[in-house]
Design goal:
By secondary structure, the protein is mainly alpha-helical. The protein has one domain (24-151): 3 helical TM bundles of succinate and fumarate reductases (Up-down Bundle), CATH 1.20.1300. It contains five helices and no strands. The chain has helices at 23-50, 61-68, 71-99, 103-130, 144-151. The longest helix is centred in the middle third of the chain and has 29 residues, at 71-99. The radius of gyration is 22 Å and the shape is elongated. The model has no long low-confidence stretch (mean pLDDT 85). Pfam families: Sdh_cyt. One of its GO terms (molecular function) is metal ion binding. Keywords: Heme, Iron, Membrane, Metal-binding, Transmembrane, Transmembrane helix.
Length: 153
């Protein structure tokens, strides 16, 4: 392994070699901005779920169903999901780029990270926006009365 010297951060040698966008810079900036937004979203989520109303004892299936019935909380949770998953994937990409020396293995791992994140984002978003607390509730079930009241049946 040979020792390489790094160019000064603002020198022409440190600019992207292909003349395109500096993706590392945008990734770095995304991590800072998404981190701040995630702190607000997560602490807001925790405050509402744990401290408002009856606190943690009120969290049950009905509580989650009620939150997912409100567009505000749907978008709040989807924002947390998207920002958190992309933030985490970008961090894993950085770690992979730092520690995996084989170029092919690095490409395979980074691709696997982004495929997994894409799949989780699609599935998580579908769950949030298509959640129906009355799906699969039978007449003899504990939720039948609440669902009948919600649907007007």
């Amino acid at each position: 392994m040979t020792a390489e010297t790094l160019a000064a951060p603002r020198s022409k040698a440190s600019a992207p070699r292909n003349g395109g966008a500096n993706l590392e810079k945008w990734g770095w900036l995304y991590m800072r901005i998404s981190g701040v937004v995630l702190v607000v979203l997560i602490f807001g989520h925790l405050f509402v779920n744990l401290m408002v109303g009856d606190g943690i004892s009120a969290i049950d299936f009905g509580f989650v169903g009620g939150k997912f019935a409100t567009p505000f909380w749907q978008w709040w949770d989807v924002a947390m999901l998207w920002l958190g998953l992309i933030h985490g994937a970008n961090g894993m990409r950085t770690i992979t780029n730092d520690y995996v020396l084989n170029k092919t293995a690095r490409k395979v791992l980074v691709s696997a990270i982004w495929i997994a994140v894409g799949l989780l984002i699609v599935l998580g978003t579908l769950v949030v926006f298509t959640f129906d607390p009355c799906n699969g509730v039978f007449e003899d079930g504990a939720l039948w009365e609440a669902c009948a009241e919600l649907t007007g049946k």
